[in-house]
Amino acid sequence: MKSIVWVVTGKPSSFIEEKIKGLMAQNWEVFLITPNDNDYQHLHTPKISKKEIDRKKKSITTFFWVLFHFSWFLEVAQFFRKTRQHNRLDAMKMAIGACVLAQRKKPNLIHVQWLHETVRFAPIAKRWNIPLLASVRGSQANYYIDSTKDGMERFLLNAQYATHFHCVGMEMSEKLVSLGIPTEKITVIYNGLDRSIFKPLDSKSLDDSPVRLLTVGNFNPRKNHLAALSLMAELKKEQLDFQWTFIGEGHGEKRFQYFVQLLDLPESQVVFLKGLNAQQMANQYQKHHFLLGFSSSEGLCNSVLEAMACGCIPIVFQATGMQELIPTDDAGTIIPWGDVMEMKRQMAVLMDRKVEWKKWSENAVASSMNFPSHQESTQDWIKLYQRLTEVQP
Amino acid sequence: MKIFFASIGKPTAFIARRILALKEVNIDLLVDWDVAPPLLEGEQIMEVAFKKPSWKRFHHLFFFPRFFLDSFKFLQSQCHYSLKNSFRKALFLCEIAHHQPQLVHVQWTNAARDYLPLQKFLNIPVLAAVRGTQITTSPFISEKSKEILDQIIKNISNFQTVSLDLKDKLVKLGVNSGKIINNYNGVNTDLFKNFNSRSKHIEQLEIIMVARNYWSKCVESAFFILYELKKKQIPFRFTWVGVPQNDPLFNHWMDRLNLTDHVQLIERLNSTELVQRYNESDVLLSTSAAEGLANVILEAMATGCIPVVWNCEGMNEAIGKDGTGFIHAFGEISSMVTSLETIYSNNEWRLSSSKACEERVVRQFNEKIHTGLMIQEYQNLLMLNQRK
User: Fold this and answer.
1) C or N: which end of chain B has fewer Cβ atoms within 10 Å?
2) How many domains does chain B contain in total?
3) Domain check: are B37 and B175 in the same one?
4) What domain count does chain A have?
5) Widest CA span of chain B, in angstroms?
6) What is the mean pLDDT of the segment spanning A366-375?
7) Is A221 on the interface with B (CB under 8 A)?
8) Are both B126 and B247 inside the same structural domain?
9) Does the pLDDT value for residue A206 go beyond 80?
10) Of B216, B221, B248, which has the smallest distance from its Cβ to A230's Cβ?
11) What parts of chain B have a pLDDT lower than 50?
12) Sorting pLDDT into bands at 50, 70 and 90, what band is A392?
């Protein structure tokens, strides 16, 4: 009999997609719970979107299901009222949502990709007595817990209902332990790298003028693009010949573009791209000399790993996972967070030493080889799922 | 002369003082505000507030049926308002028409298009105040704002800008410069003044920033500047007015950059407390990317607090080349830090600059003078309109 796993996804990502494909190939039945109707549609695996859940809440089948399981429904509504501090009506709506899902065939495991969803699935996991695995992302453990009013409270609440935790790096794991999560409940599985795509170009050298800079990440305050802006202003002041590509989208995109046009640089000097697939991303990494990262928090930054695999040298602000990615100081540079002037100084040093740049680029590629491939990572996932489903909570 | 002050929203102290000054020279005023400011309590001011409709408003429809219909059609077809909104706005315009103002001064650029029917069908000049974001950031980041601005630029009879930079921007957007009045807000120099003689020597640099956490103020950048200042071992204390003391995000940044001992966050100060703070500060820091002409700069300068700013609209008008502060290219951290270092290390320069700042504001940005100039402009506009 096939084992069934429910995967509660966030925004579509290539890592999740690879993992799902790997699981399906290994005879696992994957049921996806996605934010939008169209997410992961091409994978042809059973799925339900949050919008569809909302639609099904009003169906006659759900009405009768609730009627026949009324005591469970009340218990769940009370749970949401208590844990999420919802008013009665909202708690009942949430409970009906749980009833929509509870009508399905019992899975062996629920895996939420985003810790803050854990509490939502806790009553279902409890009903079926199955493990609830939560992936903890960098922003949740490193940023929101102390930069938002209820961040820590939300973290602890959700952590309370997960039976096991997954994170993407060793530094993240240490952070989780420091937040009170027992070591034995944590498994580190790296995202894995598609080595057939992310590989270096032999022909690149720093002699190609201008120096090409790349920054990858959505335009939100956490990614700290204002530091990039100041660095750009400083490079302009020093009259350095550079070309900078930003890849990302988000509500801050236009705002950042407004700032950039204030610097009065030629239009071709700063380029904005978005919606690139893995191959297009790899092409960009291969084309650029340096990946500049300003983020306030990470788990283990994918763009840094991918860039290194393509020979693009990372110069990044300190964040969780950076030390793991850049273990030696000749494969990239980690700058104290927020120190824009130091970043500029380090860049100037590297730009001056063209021979060293080539060496560093090779070192970056070598360092990236320490991380697993997509296939290896998928195998780790299957092992973890098997381990968790063998031991019922 | 009867002027309708439209779309005031929540009046600032400056608007309240200006209304009072206009009343003192016997200008009849009609106002549309959300709430009356404390300064004008007890004053006899005719209020016609859009947000406070009453049944009485309906009877104006019978006196201006044609105008109502024309306005209704215009608002629906040109401004794309819903039936209900067009009806409410047209009814509001009838009430204004009933009061027969000779001039409409709209205090919020984008709102000016609501008053186009008055200009179009009753031939009343509409003067749209242009204060900053609505011609700087908003049309850049929002297609809808751009559309509205285009419509206003094409149709509104007159504009009032608060800085020459904004005037230039409007001209570049296609407005005939003859249609633009530049009138500075100015500063109430009775209130904002230096009442302490500044110390000849300072132990640490006292820096103040007055800004809320709005995206165009680039507030995070201030932390990068302070971090660099700390690295250079320049002793300083930073007071941030406009941010709650317990703001988790700001405290997170301060912790990460190890600046907690240097920074004090203050959510709100009244004007007397603010003047006191300016008097205690050596430098006003601004990392803003877009302004009209930042009043905080002028107010700080009036107290002898030296501005160190990134360049944006109005900065070159407020801060001269006469040692009244520093303007740097937007985004540059190193230049800001060098200026702060100069102010800290050169007492003589600091004292003379502080004096020059005070004098410049008294000489060029006295609120009373600019209110007087605005009254003249109103009169000119009315004269021109009568001639037409």
Assistant:
1) C
2) 2
3) yes
4) 2
5) 73
6) 94
7) yes
8) no
9) no
10) B221
11) none
12) low
Which chain A residue is nearest to residue B219, measuring alpha carbons? A226
Q: What is the CATH number of the domain that holds B176?
A: 3.40.50.2000
Q: In the structure, what pLDDT confidence band is assigned to residue A1 with cuts at 50, 70 and 90?
A: low
- Give chain A's mean pLDDT: 92
Cβ atoms of A242 and A210 within 8 Å: the answer is yes
B182 found inside a domain: yes
Chain A interface includes B76 (CB < 8 A): no
Answer yes or no: is A204 within a domain.
no
- CA A278 and chain centroid, separation: 15
Give the tokens for residue A323: 């030390």
Return the minimum-mean-pLDDT range out of A107-111, A201-205, A377-381. A201-205
Given this model, what pLDDT does residue B229 score? 97
Indicate the length of chain A as a whole number: 393
B215 and B356 part of one domain: yes
Give this prediction's pTM: 0.92
- In this structure, the answer to whether residues A149 and A227 fall within a common structural domain is no
Residues A319 and A252 in one domain: yes
What integer pLDDT is reported at residue A393 of this predicted model? 45
Place of tokens 């429809």: B61
The whole domain housing B215 covers 205-364
- Does the pLDDT value for residue A129 go beyond 50? yes
Q: Give the pLDDT confidence of A54-107 residue by residue, as tens digits.
A: 999 999 999 999 999 999 999 999 999 988 777 889 999 999 999 999 999 999
Nearest chain A residue to B140 by CA distance is: A258
Same domain, B175 and B240: no
Claim to verify: residue B115 and residue B215 sit in the same structural domain: no
| Confidence category of residue A356, pLDDT binned at 50, 70, 90 | confident
Based on the domain organization, do A124 and A254 belong to the same domain? no
Tokens 């407390």: give the residue. B273
* Partner residue opposite A233 with nearest CB, options B255, B257, B332: B332
- Provide the residue range defining the domain that includes A74: 3-192+373-390
Mean pLDDT score, A269-288: 95
Name the residue with tokens 């974001």. B133
Cβ partners under 8 Å of residue A201, min gap 6: A286, A310, A311
Instruction: Choose, out of B333, B335, B339, B341, the residue to mutate when testing the contact with A (most A CBs < 10 Å).
Output: B333
Phi, psi at B311, each rounded to 5°: -70, 135
Is residue B276 located within the same domain as residue B219? yes
Amino acid at B16: A
B231–chain A nearest CA distance, Å: 10
Q: Do A360 and A240 belong together in one domain?
A: yes
- Is ipTM over 0.90? yes
Instruction: Tell whether B58 is covered by a domain.
Output: no
Amino acid at B236: F
Statement to judge: residues A62 and A141 lie in one domain: yes
Indicate if B255 and B319 belong to the same structural domain: yes
* Bridge partners of residue A188, in order along the sequence: A167
What is the per-residue pLDDT across A309-350, written as a single tens digit (0 to 9) for each? 999 999 999 999 999 999 988 999 999 999 999 999 998 888
Q: What is the pLDDT of residue A61?
A: 94
User: What pLDDT score does B114 carry?
Assistant: 94
| Cα(A80)–Cα(A82) distance, integer angstroms | 5
Residues 6+ apart with CB under 8 A from B235: B203, B204, B205, B344
The CATH code of the domain that includes A86 is 3.40.50.2000
Q: Are residues B281 and B327 in the same domain?
A: yes
pLDDT, residue A131, reads: 95
Residue A217 pLDDT more than 90? Answer: yes
Residue B8 falls within a domain, yes or no?
A: yes
Q: Name the DSSP letter for residue B100.
A: -
CA A259/CA B111 separation, integer angstroms: 26
> Does A242 share its domain with A155?
no
| Dihedral pair phi/psi, residue A272, rounded to 5° | -115, 125
Contacts with A338 from chain B: Cβ below 8 Å: 223-224, 227, 253, 256-257
- Taking an 8 Å cut-off on Cβ atoms, the answer to whether A147 and B289 are in contact is no
Residue B78 lies inside a defined structural domain of this protein: no
Nearest to B331 among A146, A232, A254 (CB): A232
Size of interface A-B (CB pairs under 8 A): 90
